[in-house]
Amino acid sequence: MMGLMLAACTADDSISRNYRCSFIFDTSLHPLPCQLTGIIGNNGHFCKVEHRVVKGITHLKTTRNYDGATEDIELVTAKESQISYALGANNCIIIGTSSYDFSLVAYDGQCPNCLADYNGTNYPLTWQNNGQLLHCAKCDRSYDVNNGALAGGPAGQKGLLRYMAAYDGTVLRAWN
């Protein structure tokens, strides 16, 4: 019994805990053509997700990897208004389905090497190479969006900061 309890409490070392991530999105309230709903189960499809509140209404700004299309999703239902969002180092996560192993993955939207090397948290990643890479303008590094590994630029110690991700058929989540 004690071994089972310890196993359940063991933390996954690959999950970043440096910056809080708490993201919940109900796809039943936002059916297709909503970009976030559209990435689920589509290998190689990702969205950059940013959160803001405007005049008391929560907005998610999404940017798709493969075409750069953006969408402003207003979260206006009573259920959605109860959710508190925290999107990593600087209010941005990347979430989607890896084309390597077809798993749902979530990453921080900031350059992990710049976060480690410099003060502050404003080192945004942008889509590059038809959305298969995330690029940092500060250090000129690129990361593979499908596995989070460093893919180009100067040598670095870190791959993308990863968060847990799940989809239960209705709710898309990312957290740490």
Concise structural overview:
It contains 4 helices and 13 strands.
Features:
single chain; 176 residues; mainly beta; 9-stranded antiparallel β-sheet; 4-stranded antiparallel β-sheet; 13 strands; globular
Structural description of this entry:
- The protein is mainly beta and 176 residues long.
- Residues 1-10 have low confidence and may be disordered.
- The chain has a nine-stranded antiparallel beta sheet with strand order 4-3-2-6-7-12-13-1-5. Strands 8-9-10-11 form a four-stranded antiparallel beta sheet, with no helix packed on it.
- 13% of the residues lie in helices and 38% in strands.
- The chain has helices spanning 2-9, 35-39, 78-81, 112-117; strands at residues 21-26, 46-54, 57-64, 70-75, 86-87, 92-97, 104-108, 125-128, 133-136, 142-144, 150-152, 162-167, 171-175.
- β12 and β13 form a beta hairpin.
- The protein has four helices and 13 strands.
- The longest helix has 8 residues, at 2-9.
